[in-house]
Amino acid sequence: MLRKFLTPLSAVRRHSTKDLVDGFNREHTYLRISVSEKCNLRCQYCMPLEGVNLTPKSGVLTTNEIVYLGEHFANLGVRKIRLTGGEPLINKDIVKIVRRLKNINGIESVSLTTNGITLYRHLHELIDAGLDNTNISLDTLIPEKFAFIGRRPRQFHAKVMMSIHEAIASSLKSVKINMVVMKGLNDDEMVNFVDLTKDNNVSVRFLEFMPFNGNSWNWEKFVAFSDQKRMIENHFGCLERENDDSHSTSMNYRLPGHAGQIGFISSITRNFCGGCNRIRLTYDGNLKVCLFGRDEVSLRDVIRSPSYTEEELTDVINGAIKKKAFSHGGVDEIKKAFSHGGVDEIKKGLNRPMILIGG
Asked: Lower Cβ count inside 10 Å, N or C end of the chain?
Protein backbone atom coordinates (compact mmCIF):
# COMPACT_ATOMS: atom_id res chain seq x y z
CA MET A 1 0.00 0.00 0.00
CA LEU A 2 2.86 2.41 0.70
CA ARG A 3 3.84 2.32 -2.97
CA LYS A 4 0.40 3.63 -3.90
CA PHE A 5 0.70 6.54 -1.48
CA LEU A 6 4.00 7.57 -3.06
CA THR A 7 2.84 7.28 -6.66
CA PRO A 8 1.68 10.43 -8.53
CA LEU A 9 -1.99 10.41 -9.39
CA SER A 10 -1.29 10.50 -13.12
CA ALA A 11 -3.74 7.71 -13.78
CA VAL A 12 -6.65 9.42 -12.08
CA ARG A 13 -9.24 11.03 -14.33
CA ARG A 14 -9.19 14.82 -14.71
CA HIS A 15 -11.22 17.02 -12.40
CA SER A 16 -14.89 17.04 -13.34
CA THR A 17 -17.22 19.97 -12.79
CA LYS A 18 -19.37 17.54 -10.79
CA ASP A 19 -16.61 16.76 -8.27
CA LEU A 20 -16.91 18.22 -4.76
CA VAL A 21 -20.24 19.90 -5.56
CA ASP A 22 -23.13 19.45 -3.14
CA GLY A 23 -26.88 19.47 -3.68
CA PHE A 24 -26.97 23.26 -3.36
CA ASN A 25 -24.39 23.75 -6.12
CA ARG A 26 -21.64 24.76 -3.69
CA GLU A 27 -18.18 23.79 -4.92
CA HIS A 28 -15.76 22.73 -2.19
CA THR A 29 -12.25 23.97 -2.87
CA TYR A 30 -11.00 24.36 0.72
CA LEU A 31 -9.84 21.35 2.75
CA ARG A 32 -9.03 21.54 6.46
CA ILE A 33 -6.85 18.65 7.63
CA SER A 34 -6.34 17.82 11.30
CA VAL A 35 -2.80 16.54 11.82
CA SER A 36 -3.00 15.96 15.58
CA GLU A 37 -5.55 15.18 18.28
CA LYS A 38 -3.11 16.26 21.00
CA CYS A 39 -2.77 19.78 22.38
CA ASN A 40 -0.56 21.53 24.91
CA LEU A 41 -3.54 23.57 26.13
CA ARG A 42 -6.87 22.46 27.61
CA CYS A 43 -9.07 25.38 26.53
CA GLN A 44 -12.50 25.28 28.13
CA TYR A 45 -14.39 25.86 24.86
CA CYS A 46 -12.49 23.10 23.04
CA MET A 47 -11.42 20.34 25.44
CA PRO A 48 -13.75 18.61 27.93
CA LEU A 49 -12.55 18.90 31.53
CA GLU A 50 -11.99 15.15 31.73
CA GLY A 51 -9.95 15.18 28.51
CA VAL A 52 -10.57 13.02 25.45
CA ASN A 53 -9.77 9.46 24.44
CA LEU A 54 -7.04 9.62 21.81
CA THR A 55 -7.19 7.43 18.74
CA PRO A 56 -4.64 4.57 18.82
CA LYS A 57 -1.62 5.22 16.62
CA SER A 58 -2.76 2.55 14.18
CA GLY A 59 -6.00 4.43 13.67
CA VAL A 60 -4.63 7.85 12.72
CA LEU A 61 -3.50 8.94 9.28
CA THR A 62 0.19 8.62 8.52
CA THR A 63 2.10 11.46 6.91
CA ASN A 64 2.06 9.62 3.59
CA GLU A 65 -1.70 9.09 3.85
CA ILE A 66 -2.28 12.79 4.64
CA VAL A 67 -0.28 13.82 1.58
CA TYR A 68 -1.89 11.17 -0.59
CA LEU A 69 -5.38 12.35 0.32
CA GLY A 70 -4.26 15.95 -0.22
CA GLU A 71 -3.18 14.96 -3.74
CA HIS A 72 -6.48 13.24 -4.40
CA PHE A 73 -8.54 16.20 -3.21
CA ALA A 74 -6.38 18.56 -5.30
CA ASN A 75 -7.09 16.37 -8.31
CA LEU A 76 -10.80 16.81 -7.60
CA GLY A 77 -10.57 20.59 -7.33
CA VAL A 78 -9.34 21.57 -3.85
CA ARG A 79 -7.09 24.64 -4.05
CA LYS A 80 -6.55 25.66 -0.42
CA ILE A 81 -5.46 23.49 2.51
CA ARG A 82 -5.40 24.47 6.18
CA LEU A 83 -3.67 22.31 8.80
CA THR A 84 -5.37 22.16 12.18
CA GLY A 85 -5.52 20.06 15.34
CA GLY A 86 -5.45 19.63 18.31
CA GLU A 87 -2.23 21.57 18.02
CA PRO A 88 -0.71 20.85 14.60
CA LEU A 89 2.80 21.82 15.66
CA ILE A 90 2.85 18.78 17.97
CA ASN A 91 3.06 16.61 14.87
CA LYS A 92 6.80 15.98 14.42
CA ASP A 93 6.35 15.87 10.63
CA ILE A 94 4.58 19.23 10.38
CA VAL A 95 7.30 20.93 8.29
CA LYS A 96 7.48 17.93 5.97
CA ILE A 97 3.69 17.88 5.63
CA VAL A 98 3.58 21.60 4.75
CA ARG A 99 6.32 21.18 2.13
CA ARG A 100 4.78 18.14 0.49
CA LEU A 101 1.26 19.59 0.41
CA LYS A 102 2.48 22.90 -1.01
CA ASN A 103 4.27 21.02 -3.80
CA ILE A 104 1.05 19.34 -4.95
CA ASN A 105 -0.05 20.48 -8.38
CA GLY A 106 -3.11 22.71 -8.03
CA ILE A 107 -2.67 23.66 -4.38
CA GLU A 108 -2.46 27.44 -4.23
CA SER A 109 -2.04 27.98 -0.50
CA VAL A 110 -1.24 26.07 2.67
CA SER A 111 -2.20 27.64 6.00
CA LEU A 112 -1.92 26.71 9.66
CA THR A 113 -4.15 27.26 12.69
CA THR A 114 -2.15 27.12 15.93
CA ASN A 115 -2.27 28.12 19.58
CA GLY A 116 1.11 29.75 19.01
CA ILE A 117 2.93 28.26 21.99
CA THR A 118 5.75 26.82 19.88
CA LEU A 119 5.19 28.65 16.58
CA TYR A 120 8.13 31.00 17.09
CA ARG A 121 10.46 27.99 17.16
CA HIS A 122 9.27 26.58 13.83
CA LEU A 123 8.11 29.67 11.95
CA HIS A 124 11.03 30.20 9.60
CA GLU A 125 11.36 26.58 8.56
CA LEU A 126 7.59 26.44 8.01
CA ILE A 127 7.80 29.51 5.77
CA ASP A 128 10.75 27.96 3.92
CA ALA A 129 8.59 24.85 3.41
CA GLY A 130 5.88 26.96 1.77
CA LEU A 131 3.51 28.05 4.56
CA ASP A 132 1.44 31.00 3.34
CA ASN A 133 -0.74 32.06 6.28
CA THR A 134 -1.34 31.42 9.95
CA ASN A 135 -4.21 31.88 12.36
CA ILE A 136 -3.22 32.11 16.02
CA SER A 137 -5.78 31.41 18.73
CA LEU A 138 -5.60 33.81 21.67
CA ASP A 139 -8.52 34.60 23.96
CA THR A 140 -6.98 37.01 26.44
CA LEU A 141 -4.08 39.44 26.82
CA ILE A 142 -3.89 38.74 30.55
CA PRO A 143 -1.54 35.87 31.53
CA GLU A 144 -3.56 34.87 34.62
CA LYS A 145 -6.76 34.67 32.60
CA PHE A 146 -4.91 32.73 29.91
CA ALA A 147 -4.00 30.12 32.53
CA PHE A 148 -7.66 29.90 33.61
CA ILE A 149 -9.06 29.50 30.09
CA GLY A 150 -6.34 27.14 28.85
CA ARG A 151 -5.83 25.25 32.14
CA ARG A 152 -2.09 25.53 31.66
CA PRO A 153 0.73 27.70 33.13
CA ARG A 154 0.50 31.47 32.70
CA GLN A 155 4.07 31.44 31.32
CA PHE A 156 2.73 29.99 28.06
CA HIS A 157 1.09 33.34 27.36
CA ALA A 158 4.41 35.09 26.74
CA LYS A 159 5.32 32.40 24.19
CA VAL A 160 2.09 33.00 22.28
CA MET A 161 2.73 36.75 22.23
CA MET A 162 6.26 36.11 20.97
CA SER A 163 4.87 33.95 18.18
CA ILE A 164 2.38 36.65 17.20
CA HIS A 165 5.08 39.31 16.96
CA GLU A 166 7.38 36.97 15.02
CA ALA A 167 4.58 36.06 12.60
CA ILE A 168 3.61 39.70 11.97
CA ALA A 169 7.24 40.55 11.22
CA SER A 170 7.67 37.58 8.88
CA SER A 171 6.98 37.15 5.18
CA LEU A 172 3.66 35.35 5.74
CA LYS A 173 0.91 36.64 3.48
CA SER A 174 -1.55 37.00 6.35
CA VAL A 175 -1.60 36.67 10.13
CA LYS A 176 -4.91 36.40 11.97
CA ILE A 177 -5.67 36.28 15.69
CA ASN A 178 -8.81 34.37 16.65
CA MET A 179 -10.55 35.25 19.93
CA VAL A 180 -13.55 33.25 21.17
CA VAL A 181 -15.69 35.81 22.98
CA MET A 182 -17.28 34.64 26.26
CA LYS A 183 -19.47 36.88 28.38
CA GLY A 184 -18.06 37.75 31.77
CA LEU A 185 -14.74 36.15 30.93
CA ASN A 186 -13.04 38.05 28.12
CA ASP A 187 -15.63 40.25 26.44
CA ASP A 188 -14.20 43.20 28.37
CA GLU A 189 -10.92 42.77 26.43
CA MET A 190 -12.32 43.19 22.93
CA VAL A 191 -11.25 46.84 22.80
CA ASN A 192 -7.71 45.86 23.79
CA PHE A 193 -7.60 43.29 21.00
CA VAL A 194 -8.75 45.90 18.50
CA ASP A 195 -5.82 48.07 19.62
CA LEU A 196 -3.51 45.38 18.21
CA THR A 197 -4.64 46.40 14.72
CA LYS A 198 -3.57 50.03 15.17
CA ASP A 199 0.07 49.60 14.13
CA ASN A 200 0.13 45.95 13.05
CA ASN A 201 -0.96 44.46 9.74
CA VAL A 202 -2.93 41.75 11.48
CA SER A 203 -6.56 40.66 11.38
CA VAL A 204 -8.20 40.25 14.79
CA ARG A 205 -11.32 38.11 14.54
CA PHE A 206 -14.00 37.73 17.18
CA LEU A 207 -15.76 34.36 17.20
CA GLU A 208 -19.16 33.56 18.63
CA PHE A 209 -18.86 30.82 21.26
CA MET A 210 -20.01 27.58 19.58
CA PRO A 211 -21.49 24.49 21.26
CA PHE A 212 -19.53 21.23 21.10
CA ASN A 213 -19.48 18.09 23.16
CA GLY A 214 -17.97 18.71 26.59
CA ASN A 215 -17.33 22.48 26.34
CA SER A 216 -20.01 23.58 28.87
CA TRP A 217 -21.67 25.86 26.33
CA ASN A 218 -24.64 27.93 27.51
CA TRP A 219 -26.42 31.11 26.48
CA GLU A 220 -25.19 32.98 29.57
CA LYS A 221 -21.64 32.81 28.15
CA PHE A 222 -22.72 33.74 24.64
CA VAL A 223 -22.03 37.15 23.06
CA ALA A 224 -23.74 37.66 19.71
CA PHE A 225 -22.01 39.34 16.77
CA SER A 226 -24.33 42.36 17.01
CA ASP A 227 -23.34 42.90 20.65
CA GLN A 228 -19.65 42.43 19.88
CA LYS A 229 -19.80 45.03 17.11
CA ARG A 230 -21.78 47.47 19.26
CA MET A 231 -19.25 47.22 22.10
CA ILE A 232 -16.39 48.03 19.75
CA GLU A 233 -18.18 50.88 18.00
CA ASN A 234 -19.18 52.39 21.34
CA HIS A 235 -15.48 52.83 22.00
CA PHE A 236 -13.96 53.49 18.57
CA GLY A 237 -16.83 54.81 16.47
CA CYS A 238 -18.25 53.33 13.28
CA LEU A 239 -16.42 50.47 11.63
CA GLU A 240 -15.88 50.58 7.87
CA ARG A 241 -17.08 47.44 6.05
CA GLU A 242 -14.60 45.63 3.82
CA ASN A 243 -15.45 43.76 0.62
CA ASP A 244 -15.34 40.10 1.60
CA ASP A 245 -14.77 37.06 -0.56
CA SER A 246 -18.02 35.20 -1.27
CA HIS A 247 -16.68 32.21 0.68
CA SER A 248 -15.43 34.20 3.68
CA THR A 249 -16.45 33.00 7.12
CA SER A 250 -15.62 36.41 8.55
CA MET A 251 -17.40 39.75 8.15
CA ASN A 252 -14.44 42.09 7.94
CA TYR A 253 -14.17 45.74 8.98
CA ARG A 254 -11.51 48.39 9.32
CA LEU A 255 -11.01 51.40 11.55
CA PRO A 256 -9.67 54.58 9.92
CA GLY A 257 -5.96 54.93 10.61
CA HIS A 258 -5.50 51.30 11.65
CA ALA A 259 -3.04 49.10 9.78
CA GLY A 260 -4.97 45.89 10.40
CA GLN A 261 -8.49 44.52 10.12
CA ILE A 262 -11.27 43.42 12.46
CA GLY A 263 -13.45 40.44 11.66
CA PHE A 264 -16.51 38.77 13.16
CA ILE A 265 -17.24 35.06 12.74
CA SER A 266 -20.91 34.73 13.58
CA SER A 267 -21.45 30.98 13.22
CA ILE A 268 -24.64 31.07 15.24
CA THR A 269 -26.53 34.34 14.80
CA ARG A 270 -25.60 35.10 11.18
CA ASN A 271 -24.25 31.96 9.59
CA PHE A 272 -22.29 31.88 6.35
CA CYS A 273 -23.48 28.45 5.23
CA GLY A 274 -24.76 29.67 1.85
CA GLY A 275 -21.22 30.27 0.60
CA CYS A 276 -19.57 27.32 2.30
CA ASN A 277 -16.71 25.79 0.32
CA ARG A 278 -15.06 23.90 3.22
CA ILE A 279 -14.70 20.24 4.08
CA ARG A 280 -12.71 18.64 6.90
CA LEU A 281 -10.51 15.60 7.25
CA THR A 282 -10.09 14.42 10.84
CA TYR A 283 -6.84 12.96 12.18
CA ASP A 284 -8.42 9.51 12.24
CA GLY A 285 -9.24 9.84 8.56
CA ASN A 286 -12.93 10.73 8.54
CA LEU A 287 -14.37 13.14 6.00
CA LYS A 288 -16.62 15.65 7.74
CA VAL A 289 -18.52 17.85 5.32
CA CYS A 290 -19.87 20.23 7.99
CA LEU A 291 -18.43 21.36 11.30
CA PHE A 292 -21.79 20.92 13.06
CA GLY A 293 -22.81 17.75 11.22
CA ARG A 294 -22.69 14.39 12.94
CA ASP A 295 -22.29 12.33 9.76
CA GLU A 296 -18.77 11.22 8.86
CA VAL A 297 -17.30 8.74 6.39
CA SER A 298 -13.92 7.03 6.81
CA LEU A 299 -11.49 7.68 3.97
CA ARG A 300 -8.82 5.93 6.00
CA ASP A 301 -10.69 2.65 5.75
CA VAL A 302 -11.16 3.12 2.01
CA ILE A 303 -7.50 3.73 1.21
CA ARG A 304 -6.31 0.95 3.52
CA SER A 305 -8.44 -1.59 1.72
CA PRO A 306 -6.16 -3.73 -0.50
CA SER A 307 -8.65 -3.73 -3.35
CA TYR A 308 -9.80 -0.11 -3.44
CA THR A 309 -9.61 2.02 -6.58
CA GLU A 310 -9.18 5.76 -7.10
CA GLU A 311 -12.66 5.87 -8.58
CA GLU A 312 -14.10 4.29 -5.44
CA LEU A 313 -12.39 6.89 -3.26
CA THR A 314 -13.75 9.67 -5.46
CA ASP A 315 -17.25 8.20 -5.31
CA VAL A 316 -17.14 8.01 -1.50
CA ILE A 317 -16.02 11.65 -1.26
CA ASN A 318 -18.57 12.95 -3.76
CA GLY A 319 -21.31 10.86 -2.19
CA ALA A 320 -20.69 12.41 1.23
CA ILE A 321 -20.61 15.94 -0.16
CA LYS A 322 -23.82 15.39 -2.13
CA LYS A 323 -25.57 14.65 1.18
CA LYS A 324 -24.35 17.86 2.83
CA ALA A 325 -27.18 19.83 4.43
CA PHE A 326 -27.63 23.51 3.67
CA SER A 327 -26.77 24.68 7.18
CA HIS A 328 -25.48 23.46 10.56
CA GLY A 329 -25.11 19.90 9.36
CA GLY A 330 -28.87 19.54 9.04
CA VAL A 331 -29.10 18.96 12.79
CA ASP A 332 -32.64 20.12 13.54
CA GLU A 333 -32.01 20.43 17.29
CA ILE A 334 -29.19 22.90 16.69
CA LYS A 335 -31.09 25.01 14.18
CA LYS A 336 -34.16 25.13 16.40
CA ALA A 337 -32.12 26.00 19.48
CA PHE A 338 -30.30 28.81 17.68
CA SER A 339 -33.69 30.34 17.00
CA HIS A 340 -35.36 29.68 20.35
CA GLY A 341 -32.54 29.51 22.88
CA GLY A 342 -33.01 25.95 24.12
CA VAL A 343 -29.76 24.69 25.67
CA ASP A 344 -31.04 21.12 26.06
CA GLU A 345 -31.93 21.02 22.36
CA ILE A 346 -28.44 22.14 21.42
CA LYS A 347 -26.87 19.44 23.58
CA LYS A 348 -28.91 16.78 21.78
CA GLY A 349 -27.31 17.82 18.50
CA LEU A 350 -23.69 17.78 19.55
CA ASN A 351 -21.02 15.67 17.92
CA ARG A 352 -17.31 15.29 18.73
CA PRO A 353 -15.43 17.68 20.98
CA MET A 354 -13.81 20.41 18.90
CA ILE A 355 -10.31 19.07 19.55
CA LEU A 356 -11.23 15.77 17.82
CA ILE A 357 -12.75 17.55 14.81
CA GLY A 358 -9.96 20.00 14.03
CA GLY A 359 -10.32 23.73 14.61
From this structure: N
